[in-house]
Amino acid sequence: MGLAFYTLQMLSYLIDIASGKINAEKNLARYALYISFFPQILQGPIPRWSELAPQLFEGHEIREKNLREGLQLVLWGFFLKWMIADKAAILVNTVFDRFPSYQGVYVLIAGILYSLQLYTDFLACVTLSQGIAQLFGISLADNFRHPYFSRSIREFWRRWHISLSRWLKDYVYIPLGGSRRGTAQKYRNLLLTFLISGLWHGGGLKFLIWGMMHAIYQIAASVIYAPRNRLYLALQMPEDSLPRRILSTLGTCFWVMLAWIIFRANSLSQGMEMLRSLVTVWNPWVLFDGSLLQLGLPGKEWNVLLVSLAILFAVSVLQTRLRLRDWINQQHLMIRWPIYLLAIFAIYFMGTYGEGFRAQDFIYGAF
């Protein structure tokens, strides 16, 4: 029922009233519309009253621009879900559900693919929500900003699940004192904030450990910042150098992936065993002997997945430099429609759904 999302939405409304940031809405129908606006009620993003409510009440005409851009987002959401997330899910489920039959490099590949599955699955849902809302002329805030381009865990949380990160910062971290009361209090507040984040995701111990891992990552990064920076400078790798940016980004993705393995595992003990197998089991030959093709994803599906990931990467890079939909909309009809039709037919014929595959629920619908 999406309880976790609209509970936080209602809490932010009440807290903002209590702190004098907004005035209470006296019209029950308007309040109900804000709470139950259907595109985002199940999986976010988590809107603030000041951001969403005015759009809902001002009235919107049906406009071709909104319909076009809304359907573009819907098409991109289907691409992310069926061409990447649901394909990656097949291999991920095989490794995680049949561990310890698959260890070592199998866990590494499953961890990488789960990181991408979770991202594209959640981004797909939010993109669909944004697209449907856009049909009505309503703009929902972005919930992701290319998180796997982050160069630190702190930056990752400014780019990942942005509406939840903002909620935790504004209603938990800052009220606890934030970073204003010394280093020890700052670290305590980080631990408590990520503890609550873990509790929000689920009641199992593995979610608490996952939250604690992200807090510890940030605390450790703060503690070793100065010696790490001196090491980089000794290696002639200043802050903005390309090698340092690449190393920082890959390192961030690696630590995030380790935490995702705990997050996805069927239990905390299984997750710890999977992490242990990364360093105790040596089987790199499975990358070359066709073993990965025995995990439920045929060779042709692997090719589609890899090409789709390449498209996602290219689009993500372009989006850091321009608003891609604006560029597409500026093109001639003879360019725009072939792009649309190619995407539609590719998703229809190569997307992972229907007979022969088990449709995957949206992952964040469970939280």
Written description of the protein model:
The protein has 367 residues and is mainly alpha-helical. The chain folds into 3 domains: 3-59, no CATH class; 61-140 and 265-367, no CATH class; 151-264, no CATH class. It is built from 15 helices and no strands. Helix 2 (28-36) crosses helix 3 (49-58), helix 4 runs antiparallel to helix 5 and helix 4 runs parallel beside helix 15. The chain starts with a helix and ends in a 17-residue tail after the last helix. The model has no long low-confidence stretch (mean pLDDT 90).
Taken in chain order, the helices and strands follow as HHHHHHHHHHHHHHH
Number of strands: 0
The residue ranges in which pLDDT falls below 50 over 5 or more consecutive positions are none
Helicity level: 55-70%
Helical segment count = 15
Give the radius of gyration.
Answer: 22 Å
- Derived from helix and strand composition plus strand pairing, the structural class reads mainly alpha
> What's the overall geometry?
globular
Strand content: under 5%
Task: Spell out the blueprint of helices and strands.
Elements: H1 3-18, H2 28-36, H3 49-58, H4 64-97, H5 105-135, H6 153-159, H7 162-173, H8 183-201, H9 205-223, H10 225-234, H11 242-264, H12 268-280, H13 299-319, H14 324-329, H15 333-350
Helix pairs in contact: 2-3, 4-5, 4-13, 4-15, 5-11, 7-8, 8-9, 9-11, 11-12
Features:
68% helix, single chain, 15 helices, mainly alpha
Compact description:
With 367 residues, the chain is mainly alpha-helical. The protein has helices at residues 3-18, 28-36, 49-58, 64-97, 105-135, 153-159, 162-173, 183-201, 205-223, 225-234, 242-264, 268-280, 299-319, 324-329, 333-350. The protein has three domains: 3-59, no CATH class; 61-140 and 265-367, no CATH class; 151-264, no CATH class.
